[in-house]
Specification:
Protein translocase subunit SecD, alpha+beta, elongated, membrane, translocation, four-stranded antiparallel β-sheet, SecD/SecF_CS, SecDF_P1_head
Length: 533
């Protein structure tokens, strides 16, 4: 137990030295660390310490259900036209959260069913149930209803994609270490430390950024627009900036090109009037399709639609080649930049609405940091004084282990780019208070062995050997509690659990292995006949 070869001594010293070095940047002022670059590891402060914005977003599942109906309507129309022979159908109704349409030729019922089965989706999740239920009514009318399993799977997939889109949008803001996690089936928690403008964050995350280009239906009469009744194959959309007068416009349902085919978007200025606009670039497929459609419809207007609202409806004066276009409107530089970020990060598969928000000021965070540092300093001072008075030299070794353990915990957090929260500081203080438990057990066991008449070497060796079992068992039960909090707890509880688990591992290493090395080196060098413990 007290045999420490040279390689082992230097391994322990090197490990602790590296972790202490990793911790140093976290203790330096921010103005110093800012010049060191982002590659230098350091602890990030959470929302409750650095201040920032908190949002709880909830998915609009009704909007998702409507989007699925619209998508299925387009798929049904395309599928019936694509195959041979072509299956003629009447207008598709989406009333009552279901699709229904009539076959013009009842003899094609079986062929139509076969084609519908190819787009109705396979087993939804592990249920084996189809995403859409297909029924035939009155021999020639089909009714497609979304199943509960299919909708649940669609919500789960959409929320997973929405979480990633939200993450990309926030990363574009240049914020540091945001927390973005799903909560339940249809909610997302967003915490952005350091951001003091929650309105800008809400505006950015509130954009679904569903960009579409559609042709304007010129056959719609003013009476139809006033009554919001679109011709067959078209739809009425709001157009607040319509220079023709009415705040609505009729557009074709078929999409010329969508935002899914974008590869870039950026805020620029119109060379003619120097007003802010958004320049967009399509991928190869989108660029070719856009060029073909603009060639075939030169002289006709097309609508630029964002989140089911028309931004502008310019005329196609000439074919738009090269896969590039621009979106103009009543933009400011900030709103154009936000739209560019939203388009670059991709559209949200489901609309999100803010149901809870809060802002933490940096002053409150600074007060929390000062209180946490004071609590940590007081805890270290009291522990150091107690151990030094009670155990003398062995207490000095334990104190050295406690101080190094503080740096090691910070170094581990910095290495993994962890975020320290106020509950994390509580876990930090608790770890300091319990860091010397192992040394208390060891020292008391050594004292007992000396009272039994054993020599110094035997007492120290048995003390570390026998106490290590108790230390291991006690810390295992401690760690189990921390793991349960980490797995089942929410944000603040997880912050506490992370620091607690790191502290358990590092305190055992410093309090047992490191102090045992120091004691072994001292005994080997001085060969004491008695010890004062």
């Amino acid at each position: 137990m007290l045999d420490f070869p040279r390689w082992k001594v230097w391994s322990i010293i090197a490990t602790l030295a590296v972790l202490v070095a990793l911790a140093i940047p976290s203790f330096l002022p921010e103005r110093v660390t800012a010049g060191l670059g982002s590659r230098v590891p350091h602890i990030n402060f959470g929302l409750d310490l650095a201040g920032g914005s908190y949002l709880l977003l909830e998915a609009d599942t009704a909007d998702l259900a409507n989007s699925r109906l619209e998508t299925m309507r387009d798929q049904v129309t395309a599928e019936m036209r694509r195959g041979k022979p072509r299956i003629a159908i009447g207008d598709i109704s989406t009333r009552g959260n279901q699709l229904s349409f009539m076959l013009r030729d009842p003899s094609q019922v079986d062929a139509a069913r076969e084609r519908l089965l190819t787009i109705a989706g396979g087993g939804a999740g592990m249920t084996g149930q189809r995403e859409w239920d297909i029924q035939v009514v009155d021999t020639s009318r089909f009714v497609l209803k979304p199943t509960e399993a299919g909708l649940a799977q669609a919500i789960d997939t959409a929320m997973g994609d929405a979480t990633e889109v939200v993450r990309r949008r926030i990363d574009e803001l240049g914020t540091r270490e945001p927390t973005i996690i799903r909560q339940g089936t249809d909610r997302i928690v967003v915490q952005v430390p350091g951001l003091q403008n929650p309105q800008a964050l809400k505006d950015l995350l509130g954009k679904t950024a569903r960009l579409e280009f559609k042709l304007v239906d010129l056959t719609a009469t003013p009476e139809q627009l006033a009554q919001k009744q679109a011709p067959v194959g078209s739809q009425i959309l709001p157009y607040p900036g319509n220079p023709a007068g009415p705040p609505v416009i009729a557009v074709k349902r078929s999409v010329i090109i969508s935002g899914d085919q974008l590869i870039d978007a950026s805020q620029t200025f119109d060379p003619q009037d120097n007003l802010p606009q958004v320049a967009i670039t399509f991928d190869g497929t989108g660029g070719r399709r856009f060029a073909r459609v603009t060639q075939e419809n030169t002289g006709k207007p097309f609508a630029i639609i964002l989140d089911n609202q028309v931004i502008s409806a310019p005329n196609i004066n000439e074919p738009i080649l090269g896969g590039r276009a621009s979106i103009s409107g009543n933009f400011t530089v900030e709103s154009a930049n936000q739209l560019a970020i939203a388009l670059r990060s991709g559209k949200l598969p489901v609309a999100l609405k803010v149901i809870e928000e809060s802002t933490v000021g940096p002053e409150l965070g600074q007060d929390s940091i000062r209180a946490g540092v004071l609590a940590s300093a007081v805890a270290v001072a009291l522990v150091v004084a107690f151990m030094l008075v009670t155990y003398g030299r062995f207490g000095l070794y334990a104190n050295l282990a406690v101080v190094i353990n503080v740096f090691v915990i910070v170094g581990v957090l910095a290495f993994f780019k962890g975020t320290l929260t106020l509950p994390g500081i509580a876990g930090f203080v608790l770890t300091i208070g319990t860091a010397v438990d192992a040394n208390v057990l060891i020292n008391e066991r050594i004292r007992e062995e000396r009272h039994r008449g054993r020599s110094v070497v035997q007492a120290v060796e048995l003390g570390y050997k026998e106490a290590s079992r108790t230390i291991f068992e006690a810390n295992v039960t401690h760690a189990i509690s921390g793991v349960i909090m980490l797995v089942l707890g929410s944000g603040p509880v997880k912050g506490f659990a992370v620091v607690l688990l790191i502290g358990i591992a590092t305190s055992v290493f410093t309090a047992v292995t490191f102090t045992r090395m120091l004691v072994a080196l001292w005994i080997r060098r001085t060969k004491p006949k008695t010890i004062n413990i």
